[in-house]
Each structure stands twice: as structure tokens, then as C-alpha cells.
């Protein structure tokens, strides 16, 4: 089985998060909408077609994800007056409001946005529908190379929306598609995993600057955030559970490069493969059972320059690890 590296190392796989609410009829109706160029007309259309706040919040999410392509142009309208000095709170509020209007106009006309453009558009339309929404700023971990790094600069923006007096997490940017790692082109691919994502899953990829917006029962520290493996969205729907003893970095010795992976749970009929970043073909994982009824597999790393390991379930990327070599295993 041949799996292209460029497709899977960054791809946040296209498995929908299992919500109790049925979203397919909403998505189907919104997919027939025209390419609106103003938020007021779009908000009126959504308000006429849907009744509840959850339906409206989903409709806004789906329309933006289907119609706006990612464009990481940081030299455009987004950074105008970024270093400007304001002489009063009123002036600052007025200038920022003007900037938001300009950004929304730019996004709707160009049909492109960076993460801030996606977030401000979602927030604006929700507010017109009398649904409270905010923009959250923070850090993300989406690539295996992010594991174990020391980074504090905010690099992403997403949304929270209040539905039935409860805050829900949304990332329209990551739901619109992904970037091909070889061509650097944006690939449109609707993925609703990041709509109302459970906080304990969302925190695997998104670390908000303000701890309160983790929305988790137990706060996660930044160091721990970057220490865990990459959990692609398919992982949470695969019935595959990596053992808690694993961090995101797998250490191997210089003399013998073998990797042993342990699993607390595996699917009933597992079809598992692994791919090292220096290989072109994925190889099948053969599981064995330990005395304590845990599952494990041993992978031989023939290429000493391999730095990344990705585990697949049913050809979908599930878990990503970074490989590091040292004289003695920790």
C-alpha cells in the first residue's frame, strides 16, 4: 500500500466528530447558498432558514468553511497599522472597528482569509444573529516537528460560541481544508471535526493564551502541550489508544534503532500501518499481546536519518511521533 508522505503528515483527516445533533440537512442547505458578499444578507438568509442557535451557528460555520480559502498573506490588509499608537480608548475602539470592517470586506470579496480573517468573519455573522461569539488567540501543534519545541508566540486564532449558556469550541480555518506540504497549495476539504469539539480533544492541537479558554476540567501546561504526540482527528474515532507512557518523542540508540509502541486499546479488527519520513511505502503493523493484556509492536528503523513516525488506522493518519537518537535510552 503506497501512502504519499505529503498527503498525510499534515492532513487533519476528514472524519466528522460524532455529535448527537444531526448536521447533514443544515450542511446540505447551506451548500446551495450563493457566494454572499455582505454579512447582513447572509445573516438574514440563515435566520430565515434556521430557528435554533445551534442550527445558525452550524450554518455560519459551514458557509465560511465551504466558501473561503486559506491565504496566509501577512503583508496584506491584516497587519495595517499594527504598530499604531492610540491616544484614547475611544480612538482605539473606533480604529479597530474600522479595521474589522475592512478585513471582512476583503475576505468576502477575495474569498480568501488567514486565521484571523476566518475568526472575525465567524464572530461578526454570529453577532448579527444575536449569538455570542469571541475570538481566541493561542498556539497550535499540527506538525510532528512541533513536538518538544519551546515556543510562546501566538500563531493562530479560532472561535468560541455560546450555545444554551455553554461555550463551544470552533476552528473554521482548520475545517476549510489543509495545505499540501510539497506544493504549499491550499486543498479545499470540508472537515467538521473542529465544530463543537470536546475540550479534551481540542487541547491536543490548540493552546489558548488565556487558560480559562481551554475549557478543560484540569488545565494543561504549555510544556505538556508540546510534549505529547500529534493526535490527528481520526485518532479519536479509531478505537486506537496509545499507552499513556508514550510522549511525543521516541528515543532510539545509535547502535540499535528499534521502536516499541504500546497500546492500551486497539480496534477489534485492526488494520494498522506505519510510515517513516524517509520511506515511500507504509508498512503493516503486527501486534502482539503482553502478559498484562496490553498490545505492542516493534518497528525496526533501517534508515538512521528517519526523524518522524506516523501510525495509520485504515489508511487514515492517527498518531505522529518525533524520533530522536541518543547514546542511552532514558
Q: Tags for this entry?
A:
single chain, 330 residues, alpha+beta, C8orf32 fold, Immunoglobulin-like, 6-stranded mixed β-sheet, 9 helices, disordered N terminus
Write the layout of secondary structure elements.
Elements: H1 5-8, H2 24-31, H3 39-49, H4 53-67, E1 69-70, H5 89-110, E2 112-113, H6 115-128, E3 133-140, E4 156-163, E5 166-170, H7 172-176, E6 177-179, E7 186-188, H8 199-202, E8 206-208, H9 222-227, E9 230-231, E10 241-242, E11 249-253, E12 258-265, E13 272-276, E14 283-284, E15 288-289, E16 295-300, E17 308-313, E18 316-326
Parallel strand pairs: 1-2, 11-18
Antiparallel strand pairs: 3-4, 3-8, 4-5, 6-7, 9-18, 10-12, 12-16, 13-14, 13-17, 15-16, 17-18
Structure description:
With 330 residues, the chain is of the alpha+beta class. It has two domains: 211 residues, C8orf32 fold; 89 residues, Immunoglobulins (Immunoglobulin-like), CATH 2.60.40.10. Helices cover 27% and strands 25% of the residues. The strands form five sheets. Strands 9, 11, 13, 14, 17 and 18 form a six-stranded mixed sheet that branches. Strands 5-4-3-8 form a four-stranded antiparallel sheet. A hairpin with a 5-residue loop joins strand 15 and strand 16. Helix 2 packs across helix 4, helix 3 packs across helix 6 and helix 4 runs antiparallel to helix 6. The chain is elongated and about 65 Å long.
